[in-house]
């Protein structure tokens, strides 16, 4: 990592997280401290059960560590109220899920448009930006189709478009190519790389996919809840 | 977007949503049909009572509580002037459809024609026939049977009246009056067994009165005996033009209606003719409070010893029927609410369970807990609104079918079968109340599953399969 004057987009300080089953406590993340710089393509790698998804969830402000400090774009997110945290996620973080997680009753266009609705973007601007984003991911022709009418690759393109439409500082993706065939997976990786460069957004992935690892600017290896 | 999303979400599992909306519709249908039925009952009862006794009655103070036992002591002095005062009042004038004096009278009625010698107590009323005919045409709610003119109490013949079927039966007049289905007492028991025996002197008086009357041809006569306001016995003959069956047996067994002048002659003799009541029938029932207030104001201004009673006070039966049906309606509404509540809770709980991962997704995207709650509440509200609207449409169709079916029934307080009709449930309190009530119930029923959805942890929801 080179020294830079720009503050990190993610800063974790001694975070720990354990899951509790009855009286048994299972540590998922143990005392992790890390920084991720803006506009980089980062991956978190590790075997199943190593704690990478838990780590990603805490970076994405959808899970809370038992101890430690989480800063996203300089904001101590653990001090935010539930509503403020929701608003923060709406503005700052985009998600791409392994199972796409599109809203089935909305068309591709409406799925992509949805985050802008949460930000109260005026309707005309919403429509313009959504159309442009769908065009950018190559799905202009499928705008009116619902998720069940799209292929896996198309769904993931919609998910990427949905994550990027609000131009977030951070896009988190948990195994984004796991449910795709190799050709489609490669295309999605290429698309994400291109979009990251276009929108100057920080991408953080959890993955087992070596092609994705090969694209990474920064790699974090995690094992038994600890960074190696 | 909220309601667009809600409508699309409830269309995901169409069969389940249709079943739930149908249950809501059945709830609305049941409430509206029962509401329509009770509205018709209330309108029919009110119409009958107002046609007979008007909306308001003005009595001498104390008459309502004590007068019926001795009406002669509660006459209204100079009643024509009092009526003029009411009729000329600019406020009341526009409200009044009819205003008529009445004279209550109690006494003994006897039939001493031919071999018959029967008598019994009676409760009579002296009326102005033309006014009564006008009142009988009142039909504000469209719930009246078709008007048929009745001249049996017409003024030109001041001694002609009608009696209750029970009076006719006990006085042995069913045969002469050709009353169908009216049993004649057996010879051994009749008619003395049913009659209150007259004092010999009074019986002689009755016979004399009957003999002094010109031969009335085929028209049966009864002799009415009462005490005048001065306490002296008085007697008049009444040509019985027919029977007027009363809905309550006790009344039917005592009812005698006669022209006002005859009743006054019986009660006041040669003294000043008064009346016991001034009946006012208004154009609209909703004017009763205003008209009553105005009457009381006029009475106070003129220092008249009068009191005002409305038709509900005079007919507690009406209030009881309204109360009974209202209670049944409330009970039915509670049952419907419980059914709708359980149906919607079940449906929305299933919806929340099936969409747990989706809830996690939108929460991760920045949707607040409150917005998740609102989304599900909107779905419940849409389900309720669609179901209740369907129920309203069905109710109107069923009412139209019933009203054209030609069914008949015997409502309480009636003496003859009438067409079975349902009132159109256009009263806002019934129509909007039912619709809004069910929407509210459906929305509230969604609250527990909506809260569950809103409270779920994002990571747990995202892991849900």
Say how many strands of chain A there are. Answer: 10
The largest sheet of chain B, given as strand count, sense and whether it forms a barrel, is: 6 strands, mixed, barrel
Which band does the percent of strand residues of chain B land in? 15-25%
- Tell me the helix content of chain A: 25-40%
Structural class of chain B: alpha+beta
Q: What portion of the residues of chain A fall into strands of 2 or more residues?
A: 25-35%
The best one-word shape of chain A is globular
SSE order of chain A, one letter for each helix or strand: EEEHEEHEHHHEHEHEE
Largest sheet of chain A: 6 strands, mixed
The quaternary state of the protein chains shown equals: heterodimer
| CA-CA gap between termini of chain B | 26 Å
Structural class of chain A: alpha/beta
DSSP summary: helix tally of chain A: 7
Q: What is the terminal-to-terminal distance of chain A?
A: 16 Å
Shape of chain B: elongated
Uncertain segments of chain A of ≥5 residues (pLDDT<50)? Answer: none
Share of helical residues of chain B: 40-55%
pLDDT averaged over residues of chain B: 88
**Helix tally of chain B?**
17
């Amino acid at each position: 990592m080179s020294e830079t004057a720009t503050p990190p987009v993610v800063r974790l300080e001694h975070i720990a997280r354990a899951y509790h089953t009855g009286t048994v406590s299972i540590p998922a993340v143990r005392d992790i401290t890390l920084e991720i710089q803006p506009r980089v393509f980062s991956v978190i790698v590790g075997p199943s059960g190593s704690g990478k998804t838990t780590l990603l969830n805490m970076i994405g402000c959808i899970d809370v560590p038992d101890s430690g400090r989480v800063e996203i774009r300089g904001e101590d997110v653990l001090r935010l109220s539930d509503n403020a945290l929701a608003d923060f996620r709406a503005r700052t973080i985009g998600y791409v899920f392994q199972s796409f997680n599109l809203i089935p009753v909305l068309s591709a266009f409406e799925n992509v448009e949805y985050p802008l609705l949460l930000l109260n973007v005026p309707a005309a601007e919403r429509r313009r930006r959504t159309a442009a984003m769908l065009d950018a991911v190559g799905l202009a022709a499928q705008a009116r189709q619902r998720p069940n009418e799209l292929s896996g690759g198309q769904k993931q393109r919609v998910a990427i478009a949905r994550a990027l439409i609000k131009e977030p500082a951070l896009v988190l993706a948990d195994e984004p190519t796991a449910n795709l065939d190799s050709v489609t997976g490669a295309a999605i990786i290429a698309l994400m790389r291109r979009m990251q460069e276009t929108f100057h957004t920080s991408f953080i992935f959890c993955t087992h996919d070596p092609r994705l690892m090969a694209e990474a600017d920064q790699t974090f290896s995690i094992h038994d809840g600890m960074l190696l | 977007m909220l309601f667009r999303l809600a409508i699309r979400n409830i269309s995901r599992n169409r069969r389940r949503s249709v079943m739930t909306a149908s249950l809501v519709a059945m709830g609305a249908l049941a409430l509206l049909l029962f509401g329509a039925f009770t509205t018709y009952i209330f309108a029919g009862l009110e119409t009958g009572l107002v046609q007979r006794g008007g909306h308001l009655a003005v009595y001498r103070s104390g008459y309502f509580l004590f007068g019926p036992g001795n009406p002669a002591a509660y006459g209204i002095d100079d009643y024509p002037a009092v009526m003029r005062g009411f009729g000329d009042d600019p406020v009341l004038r526009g409200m009044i459809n009819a205003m008529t004096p009445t004279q209550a009278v109690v006494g003994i009625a006897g039939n001493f024609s031919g071999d018959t010698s029967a008598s019994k107590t009676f409760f009579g009323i002296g009326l102005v026939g033309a006014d009564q005919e006008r009142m009988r045409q009142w039909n504000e709610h469209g719930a009246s049977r078709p008007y048929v003119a009745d001249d049996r109490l017409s003024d030109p013949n001041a001694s002609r009246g009608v009696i209750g079927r029970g009076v006719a039966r006990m006085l042995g007049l069913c045969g002469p009056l050709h009353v169908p289905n009216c049993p004649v007492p057996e010879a051994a028991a009749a008619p003395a067994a049913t009659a209150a025996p007259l004092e010999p002197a009074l019986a002689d008086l009755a016979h004399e009165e009957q003999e002094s009357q010109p031969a009335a041809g085929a028209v049966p006569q009864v002799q009415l005996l009462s005490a005048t306001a001065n306490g002296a016995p008085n007697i008049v003959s009444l040509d019985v033009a027919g029977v007027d069956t009363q809905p309550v047996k006790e009344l039917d067994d005592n009812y005698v209606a006669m022209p006002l002048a005859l009743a006054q002659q019986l009660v006041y003799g040669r003294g000043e003719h008064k009346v016991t009541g001034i009946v006012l029938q208004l154009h609209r029932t909703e004017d009763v409070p205003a008209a009553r207030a105005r009457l009381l104001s006029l009475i106070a201004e003129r220092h008249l010893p009068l009191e005002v009673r409305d038709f509900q006070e005079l007919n507690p039966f009406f209030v009881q029927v309204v109360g009974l049906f209202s209670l049944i309606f409330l009970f039915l509404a509670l049952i419907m609410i419980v059914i709708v509540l359980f149906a919607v809770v079940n449906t929305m709980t299933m919806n929340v369970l099936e969409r747990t991962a989706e809830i996690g997704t939108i929460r991760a995207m920045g949707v607040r807990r409150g917005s998740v709650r609102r989304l599900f509440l909107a779905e419940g509200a849409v389900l309720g609104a669609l179901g209740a609207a369907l129920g309203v449409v069905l109710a109107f169709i069923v009412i139209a079918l019933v009203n054209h079916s030609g069914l008949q029934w015997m409502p309480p307080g009636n003496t003859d079968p009438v067409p079975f009709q349902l009132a159109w449930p256009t009263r806002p309190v019934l129509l909007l109340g039912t619709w809004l009530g069910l929407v509210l119930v459906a929305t509230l029923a969604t609250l527990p599953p909506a809260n569950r959805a809103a409270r779920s942890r994002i990571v747990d929801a995202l892991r849900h399969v």
